[in-house]
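Exam revision sheet. Question 4 asks you to relate a sequence to its structure. Input first:
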Amino acid sequence: MKWGIRVAEETVMWGIGGFIERQHMTDIQETTELKNKQVFTTGEAAKICKVSQQTIIRCFDSGRLHGFKVPGSRFRRIPRAELIRFMQHNDMDMSQLQSGPIRILVVGVSPSQTDSTIKEFAQDRKVEICHADDAWTAGYVTHAFKPNLVLLNLTSSGVDEIAVQNTIKTNPELVNTNVVTIETSQHALSTTFGNGSHTDAIKQAVQQLMSA
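Answer key, structure tokens:
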């Protein structure tokens, strides 16, 4: 009888242990997702700021915390840069917003022309780089990859800068994505981003991204 009770107790403890482990893994996953998100709900912002959701809503409605409402609804959304500004202004703990990897999409420029420069100026930050050779692939990768920065070669097949900008603007998850246009020639790259070589342009774009 005692043996049966012991087995039952161990089964219960095993179940509790499994639940705690699963909950722990879920918390880790949620924390990782929050670190990489670019747009937050009021509930997510409240969790990050360690305040109530109603506090976030009041700050939003009073203009102390800026964002936008989902069209046709009452749901509020807060861009990452704005949440960071709000937290810094109020001396809040930023640990849950520690930056994840920098995600950069390069359209129509070979890895040999961009990747080493990107990694050099990203310094110690982890960087993820995706490449696309045409407009269709670039559009698909943009929605799936959600890059922080797009380096765009305007001579690529079917690429239209205005269309790219409009696509990004209509996606709330890409509200903080920067687009830098690059034009290639037979001998070198030139860019509309600042004055100087493409290396200088990439440097400026990456450094601006890191300081955002």
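Marking note for examiners. The chain has two domains: 37-97, 102-211.
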